[in-house]
Amino acid sequence: MAVQGNRGFRNKRPKRGLIQFTEWKQEAINQLIQDDELTKLLAYNTKDWKSKPSLTEEERYNLVDKHIYSYRYVDEIAEEKQSYISMSLNYFAPQEGYRQFSEKFVMGYFYFYIMVDRGVRHTPFGDRADLITARVYDIFQESRLFGIGELEMKTQGEIWLDKGMYGGYHLGFQIIEFK
User: Fold this and answer.
1) In degrees to the nearest 10, what's the CA dihedral of 22, 96, 144, 32?
2) Is residue 16 over pLDDT 50?
3) From CA 128, how far away is CA 122, in angstroms rounded?
4) Residue 15 scores a pLDDT above 80
5) Which pLDDT tens digit goes with each residue over 70-129?
6) Would you tell me which of 21, 101, 111, 153 could form a disulfide with 94, CB atoms 3.0–4.6 Å apart?
C-alpha cells in the first residue's frame, strides 16, 4: 500500500498571501472599471472627456488589456495617443517590526503604473496623468480590498517611458497578509 503523504490536504488551507495574487489583480481591475471618471479618462483622449457619456458595461470591460493591464508590461504602445494603467505585486517578505520578523504575516506592495501619452496629458481639468493617479489613489487608499487591514500608499514616483513620450506615476500600496 502506497503512502500518499500530504497530497490532497494542501488545498484545504485558506487562501492567503501569495496564493491570492491573481484574485487581487482581478479585484483591482473590477474596482478600476467601476469608476466612472477613471474610465472616461482612459477611454476618451479628448480635452472634453468629462462631458462625454459614461461608458457602458461592455465598454468598461473592453478597457481591460487595452488600457488596463494585470501586469506591469504594456504589450505595445499604441500609434494613437492613449492612457494606461498596469500593475504588479512586489517585495513580499515576512513582516518586520522593531527588527523582529513575523512567523505569521507577510508584507508587500501592490503597485499601479499610470502612463499617459504627452499629447493627451493637458486637459482643462488638469493633467490627465495627475487626474488618473488621483482616482487610483482615491479607490485604493485605506480600502480593505486586499490582505488584512487597510491598504496604505507607501511609495510614489514619476515614470517616463518610450523616450519621454509617455509619462506618469507609480503608486505602491502596502499590503499585510497572513503567510
Assistant:
1) -50
2) yes
3) 6
4) no
5) 998 766 656 778 999 999 998 887 766 655 556 677 888 999 999 999 999 999 999 999
6) 101
Look at the alpha carbons of 49, 52, 53, 55 in this order and tell me if their dihedral is positive or negative.
Answer: negative
In angstroms, rounded to a whole number, what is the distance separating the alpha carbons of residues 148 and 31?
18
Superfamily of domain 14-178: Phage minor tail protein U (3.30.70.1700)
**Bridge partners for 176 per DSSP:** 107
CA angle 178, 94, 146 (to 5 degrees): 40
Phi, psi angle pair for 43, to nearest 5°: -80, -35
Q: Look at residues 80, 153, 72 and name the one whose alpha carbon lies nearest to residue 116.
A: 80
Can you read off the three cell numbers belonging to residue 148? 488584512
Domain extents for the chain?
14-178
